[in-house]
Amino acid sequence: MFSGKFEPNDEYNTAKAEFEKWAETHGEEGNYDIKAVPEHLRRFLYREPIYGYYLFISPNRLSIVIDDIRDDKTFTAHSVAAGNQREVTGTWEQIDTGLHMTGNEPGDEPNDGSFDMTLTAQGLNGTWTPKTASVTPKAFTLVRTKFEYDPKVAQRASEKEDYIDLGVADFGKNPSIDKLKSKDVENLTQPHIRIIRNLIFARHGYSFKGKDLRLTFEGYNWYVPVSNDVKDQLTEIEKANIALLNRYEKYADKHYDEFGR
């Protein structure tokens, strides 16, 4: 498995520079009225799920698993990015630095595209070109990654790189290990419950479609998207906790004004 991020392209870099210049004179960092942001820059922003601040997006994470390399010069793989898991089929050839591989996603989804990449001892690098001709290719450099489920990751406040600064450690319970009770969650706000519930999925490498959750978890080095369906990987405790959190999340959303602190 190879994992990393797409590299920022010219469009991204230009937009980010323009936004940073605009933001210098528009109040507290992140606390912007989205209607005040220049319209052409709004698609580069996302609203973080706890405090509602608008932040500039980062390039998507990408994971590629090479499933089979055959003697007939063909290969199969699958890609995982932005909530999509897609098959990749193509051909390879031996070059001085490794294997040059070109392959296509099925093409029946609007976000499908084609890969031109090189597999070396160091990793996997190349470009992904969407089938939409108006969008420029995206470059990537991926490193070999071994995904291992860790039910304690992002729970320890002392390990800052593994800690989501969204109140998870202050929660006092680990939703992947501790069987939650109503009293544990009944005074939490809807955004807080949503993060705790989705932390369970993130630990299993779930690839989020929702921009705010995806970009929130992709900001942490421990998170590696490996699949858009991890239901079979959930433990019995996690399933029970997800059901409980779901109930309270819906209730908190419906009665937000009088619910929570």
Break the fold down into its secondary structure elements and pairings.
Elements: E1 2-6, H1 10-23, E2 45-47, E3 54-56, E4 61-69, E5 74-81, E6 84-95, E7 98-104, E8 113-119, E9 124-130, E10 138-144, H2 168-171, H3 182-185, H4 190-203, H5 211-218, H6 236-254
Helix pairs in contact: 4-6
Strand count, sense and barrel status of the largest sheet are: 8 strands, antiparallel, barrel
Q: What would you call the shape?
A: globular
What percentage of amino acids are in beta strands?
25-35%
β-strand number: 10
| Multimeric state | single chain
CATH architecture of the largest domain: Up-down Bundle
| N-to-C series of helices and strands | EHEEEEEEEEEHHHHH
Radius of gyration: 20 Å
Output the number of helix runs.
6
CATH class of the largest domain: Mainly Alpha
Structural overview:
The protein is 24% helix and 26% strand. α4 (190-203) runs antiparallel to α6 (236-254). The chain has 6 helices and 10 strands, in the order βαβββββββββααααα. It has helices spanning 10-23, 168-171, 182-185, 190-203, 211-218, 236-254; strands spanning 2-6, 45-47, 54-56, 61-69, 74-81, 84-95, 98-104, 113-119, 124-130, 138-144. The chain has 3 domains: 2-56, no CATH class; 61-144; 160-254, Methane Monooxygenase Hydroxylase, Chain G, domain 1 (Up-down Bundle), CATH 1.20.58.
